[in-house]
Amino acid sequence: MKQNLASSVRFILLLFLNVECLNEQSPPGKPEVLKCRSPEMETFTCWWKPGSDSGLPTNYTLLYNKEGKEQIYECPDYRTAGPNTCYFDKKHTHLWTSYNISVKATNEVGSNISNPHYVDVTSIVQPDPPVNLSLQVIQSAGILYLWAKWSPPPLVDVRSGWLILHYELRLKSEEREEWETIFVGQQAHYKVFKLHPGLKYIVQVHCMLDHGKWSEWSSESYIQIPNGNVQYKREQQCNPDNIQGSPLEGLSY
Ligand SMILES: *[C@@H]1O[C@H](CO)[C@@H](O)[C@H](O)[C@H]1NC(C)=O
Ligand SMILES: *[C@@H]1O[C@H](CO)[C@@H](O)[C@H](O)[C@H]1NC(C)=O
Ligand SMILES: *[C@@H]1O[C@H](CO)[C@@H](O)[C@H](O)[C@H]1NC(C)=O
Ligand SMILES: *[C@@H]1O[C@H](CO)[C@@H](O)[C@H](O)[C@H]1NC(C)=O
Q1: In CATH, what number does 28-123 get?
Q2: Is 78 strand, coil or helix?
Q3: For residue range 205-227, what is the model confidence (pLDDT) as tens digits?
Q4: 90 and 42 in contact (C-beta within 8 Å)?
Q5: pTM, whole model, 2 decimals?
């Protein structure tokens, strides 16, 4: 009887320890595919979020198959886009195809897999913002205007003519809360009239391809519009390229 009790106690103790161990060593939490984005319709990147930390070293693998195909592939490149990402280069990016993407977390106790994330490259296009936005105040034929120009995001191959970028510009004077947004079209420059003399303006541009979403707004550029009584430089007549009129010195930054 006494022996029986002792072994029961030992059994219960072992059971308790075992449960403790299982609690400490559990499979990883469920990861989540956050989003995928293609900056130029030629490559794309997916981001994921690890699940809750089980306290054990955990490996993540991104697995995918294509619509209607059985074969499962692993992420071709975990490095290029940084931690918790998978980069699909041109060779691995196929348009008009649905990708079924999941992330599997594995530790020494077990594994856990995210919900599938379905992606069609043409629907996740979002270019980087335009770069090198520059502003000048121009005085031409007695009219004062703001000349804004910028460059397309470097990744987008606009020269091939295959991809077309559309731009919007927004501006406000420093005191104001709300932006005025102007659809620019395909050109990478714009003239803004109707400016208030003496105010400082903030300008940004963003862009979009035929498919997908607008980019983030570019970084802000500032320009001070002179008061009416400033002496303007005369337009240089001899230079036929000088269609923009003459910049006012010290006003563009
Ligand atoms: C996967 O993670 C979820 C939540 O993070 C958890 O509830 C579930 O039990 C885990 N699955 C396995 C097999 O461990
Ligand atoms: C997508 O992938 C997941 C995980 O591999 C799988 O369970 C699911 O059946 C797949 N869905 C389709 C529509 O192929
Ligand atoms: C994680 O990956 C490394 C390198 O491939 C491997 O040595 C290790 O055993 C893996 N760990 C788990 C828990 O799968
Ligand atoms: C933007 O301006 C920088 C410095 O002036 C220049 O090196 C770079 O080539 C420009 N980028 C583009 C895309 O025009």
Answers
A1: 2.60.40.10
A2: coil
A3: 999 998 789 999 999 999 999 98
A4: yes
A5: 0.75
